[in-house]
C-alpha cells in the first residue's frame, strides 16, 4: 500500500526536527505557523527561541504583543505572530489554557486553516484528518497522474478526498508527517529523486513521463492548438490507414495518413512539407475535395482537422508505404478516433 511505503521511507529518512517527537499541540501549532513561508533551517532557530521564551500557551497569552513581535523579528509575515498571540489569549481564557482537541474547534481558531487544523489534529491527537499542503498535492498529483488544477475549489475538494483515501487506515500522526516529508525531500518540485524513489513503480507520472508537468495550476493550463491534415487516399471503397503510436492521444487507434502542424498551413504549403514529399515523392495527384478545419475539442487541446481527399488508382495506393490498405467492408475491425469515424460514416453511407 502506498501509505505503508511512504511511512517505511519516512522512518528511514526523516529529519530530526525539534517539533517532531512531541505530541504537544501548542508546540506543533507554533511550528506549523512558523513553517508557513519559512524554510525549515530558519524556522528551527526561531522555534527554539520562541518556545524557550513562551513554553506554554498561557505564557504566550500573557506576554506583551511587542515582546512577541520582537521574537518574530526577521521572520516576516507578522500577522502570523499577531494571530498566534490573539489565539493564545482565546485558548487561555475560553479553554482554560488547554489546547482544543477536536478538528472542529481547532479550525475555529484565528489564523488556522484546514491544513493546519488537520496537521495539529493528527500530529497531536492522532485524529484521521489528511493534511494537504503543497508537498502532499505534489506527491498525490504525480503518483496518480492527476491533471486537475490544485488551486481551484473543485481541485482542492478532489485532492482532499484522494488524500483521505490514500491515508486509509494508516496512523494519521505518522502518515501525514511521512507524506509531507516525502514531498519535501524525495518528490521535490524541480528535481524529484525518481531514481531512488521507493514508489517509482507505482508512480503514474513517472511512467508517463509527466513528472515535470505536475502538479497543475489553473493558470498554467493552456489550451493547445494542433492542426491535423489527414490524407484520405482512396480508390473506390479502398483507402489507406496507419496506426497511431507513441505517447499521444488515441494511441493504437487508426487514422488516415497524417501531417501535423502547430499552425494552420495552406494546401500549397502542405504540398511542400517533407512528409508529403516522402509519401508521394513526385507522383501526380489530384486533390478531389478538402473538408476544412473542423475543430475537435479535447481537454486542453483543440484539434483543427482538415481532411484532404485524393482519389487515386489501386497501383498508386499500393505504392504508398508503409500504410495499410483496407476496404470499407473491414472498417468494423479497426478503432478510429472521432474525426476519422465521422468522415468514414459520411463517406461510406451504407456501412453495416
Ligand atoms: S517516482 Fe519521482 S515523481 Fe514519482 S513519487 Fe517518486 S519522486 Fe515523485
UniProtKB/TrEMBL annotation:
Domain of life of the native organism: Bacteria
Catalytic reactions on record: Hydrolyzes free adenine bases from 7,8-dihydro-8-oxoguanine:adenine mismatched double-stranded DNA, leaving an apurinic site
Keyword Ribonucleoprotein part of the UniProt annotation: no
Region forming the signal peptide: none
Main enzyme class: hydrolase
Statement: the UniProt record of this protein carries the keyword Translocase: no
EC number: 3.2.2.31
Cofactor(s) the protein requires to work: [4Fe-4S] cluster
Keywords: 4Fe-4S, DNA damage, DNA repair, Glycosidase, Hydrolase, Iron, Iron-sulfur, Metal-binding
SMART domains named in the record: ENDO3c
Note on cofactor: Binds 1 [4Fe-4S] cluster.
Ranges where the HhH-GPD domain occurs: 34-185
PANTHER family for the chain: ADENINE DNA GLYCOSYLASE
Function: Adenine glycosylase active on G-A mispairs. MutY also corrects error-prone DNA synthesis past GO lesions which are due to the oxidatively damaged form of guanine: 7,8-dihydro-8-oxoguanine (8-oxo-dGTP).
Family that this chain belongs to: Belongs to the Nth/MutY family.
Protein name: Adenine DNA glycosylase
Species this protein is from: Paralabilibaculum antarcticum
